Amino acid sequence: NKHLANCLNPEDASNRRNILRVLPFGILWFYIGMLTVSNIFIPIITIMEDGWVYPPAAGVFMIFSYCTFRLYEEANRANKIIILIAIGAVLGGYFHKNWKQNRVWKDAVTFFEHTLSYSPKSASFRSNLGMAYQIKNRNLEAINQYLLAIKLNDINWETHHNLGILYQGLKRYGDAELEFNRALAMNPGFSLSYVPLAGLYCEAKRFDLAEMTLKQLIQNFPNRWEGYYHLGYLYNTQGKRGQALKVWRLGQSQNPYNNTLNEVLKNAE
């Protein structure tokens, strides 16, 4: 096209200066943007997401917009109308795609359901969809996704913890205990599973195991208040008031500004 040739004509000093500014800048914008999500310099633990391409794509659009503008300037009246119709068609396609994509991003459930249609064997996405179902109280669907995630790749202790929470809510205490213990076996430094596991043991009148679990929590996380509070509460319900006060005071020394420990001590003393 002669208009495109004029846009890039090396004999046109003004056009040449402009294209030498726009073209390298657009190319550099694109490649620098892609490098940040290429997993070369910055480790990324998930698969490529389409949203990562949007900022780098701005470099391509800069070049495209500049050339389109130059074509429009050089075109006659009839060709200008054709260019405007083409631009309108392209923008209409983008608006339609954007509308469809916004439906995908409506909430976590629709997003992960859509993503799994492309990556059905992703354990992390299965687990994330399970959490999205769990938040919406779609518990049986959540359990199914967690079990599929574990079957695909059993490396995420949080999946076992979340599954344990669901089983506990459904009064499937044996299954819940198993999942909490699996989570802690995979990562003893995962603090969230200790308290619900101790609660299960208390529910089953297995107070020795509840005490041991809470002591492990305190040992592994001496700066957290939950272990001290619940262990003290366990002792207090067993009539061991002295031990309860001792544990609460120890917790208060580690967490002097914790309202829960301060309040329980105020009421107990």
Describe this entry's structure for a reader:
- This protein is mostly helical and about 270 residues long.
- Helices cover about 75% and strands about 0% of the residues.
- It has 14 helices and no strands.
- The protein has helices at about 1-5, 15-35, 55-75, 75-105, 110-115, 125-135, 140-150, 155-170, 175-185, 195-205, 205-220, 225-235, 240-255, 260-269.
- The longest helix has 28 residues, at about 75-105.
- It is elongated, with a radius of gyration of 30 Å.
- The relative contact order is 0.05.
Question: Which structural class do the helices and strands define?
Answer: mainly alpha
- How many DSSP-defined strands? 0
Largest sheet: none
Average pLDDT value? 87
The termini sit apart by: 90 Å
Low-confidence stretches: 2-8
Q: What is Rg?
A: 30 Å
Strand share of the residues? under 5%
Q: Number of helix segments?
A: 14
Shape summary: elongated
Q: Could you spell the SSE succession in H and E letters? A: HHHHHHHHHHHHHH
Which short descriptors sum up this protein?
269 residues, mainly alpha, disordered N terminus
What are the SSEs and their pairings?
Elements: H1 2-7, H2 13-35, H3 54-74, H4 77-104, H5 108-116, H6 123-135, H7 139-152, H8 157-169, H9 173-186, H10 194-203, H11 207-220, H12 226-237, H13 241-254, H14 259-268
Summarize the structure.
With 269 residues, the chain is an all-alpha fold. The chain has helices spanning 2-7, 13-35, 54-74, 77-104, 108-116, 123-135, 139-152, 157-169, 173-186, 194-203, 207-220, 226-237, 241-254, 259-268. The longest helix has 28 residues, at 77-104.
